[in-house]
Amino acid sequence: MDDEIITRQLRFQIEKDLPRYWNDNCPVKTHILNSIAILAPAFERLAITSVLPFKDYPISAHLKAQLAGFIGQESAHGSEFIRFNQVLKLQGYDTKKLQTANIRNFKWLTKKLTPKMHLSLTLAAEHLTAIISDLLLREPQWLAHATPSIAALWRWHAIEEIEHKAVVYDLYQQIGGGYFKRIFGMWLVTQMLGGILVTNFFHLTKKDQLLFKGAFWKSLFRICWGKPGFLRKLLGSYFRYFLPGFHPWQQNNLAMLNEWKKLLTNTAVSEQMVQALQKTSTLAEQ
To answer: What's the total number of domains in the chain?
Structure first.
């Protein structure tokens, strides 16, 4: 298994005149991902700061190398989502206010936590991003009709989130993290991130004057819980986290990941990587 974590500094040509509903001309599909994008920069910072206290711990050299790659990838993700959020701001959404609140809340929370508990939050959140990323790459309908530049951004993010999905877990294990603290971290993250995402989604839909449109809420329920079932399809993977012997790679999507990574390894030119991610809608798992 090639488990080297590589930092890829890609830059996506995010159009300033991006269609308001850039994902399949659907406000629900668009705002689900917009809500995550608004959260992303603050969360990437939270993830990076959670691992820094343990860089000098007596952990394996292999894991130290992976941590360096993890930090590099998360930093790159944060930078690109900041650029994406600037475009959302041009569309009239108050992304700056939402991001400032996210950063303030995360800072307050982490001051109350021990370093190991802080790490358990990141561990839980990394699991959530990994299972969402798996869904985006495995099922074509989520990005097949999205604006190509934004589809490419999300595919790149998903590939790297799966690529490093076990790094924080392995660190947590090597520093002696226990089961109950891991589970409590997931409970906190579910409440915290769930609340933030609902707030972001509410802001976006309110700005678009969708709150009192029955068709919108019907579509939201269908997309999340019916068919195709964005949230419904995440439940099994979410609850597996609570098993005592859980490990992120028990969801073995390595074959699918390697197929997607070919788009990034067939060239050393970042512009060509972005073009490949724009043109590809789905790759079947081997």
So the answer is: 1
Query: What is the DSSP annotation of 223-280?
Result: HHHSSS-TTGGGHHHHHHTTSTT--GGGS--HHHHHHHHHHHHS-S-HHHHHHHHHH-
Rounded to whole angstroms, how far apart are CA atoms 50 and 77? 16
Residue 74 lies in a domain: yes
Q: Is the pLDDT of residue 55 over 90?
A: no
Q: What letter represents residue 210's amino acid?
A: L
Q: Is the pTM of this model over 0.70?
A: yes
Q: Report the distance separating Cα 246 and Cα 153, nearest Å.
A: 29
For residue 223, is it within any domain?
Answer: yes
The pLDDT assigned to 1 comes to 47
The Cα 188–Cα 43 span in angstroms is 14
pLDDT above 90 as % of the chain: 76
Alpha-carbon gap, residue 162 to 126, rounded angstroms: 9
Here the tokens at position 93 are 């959404």
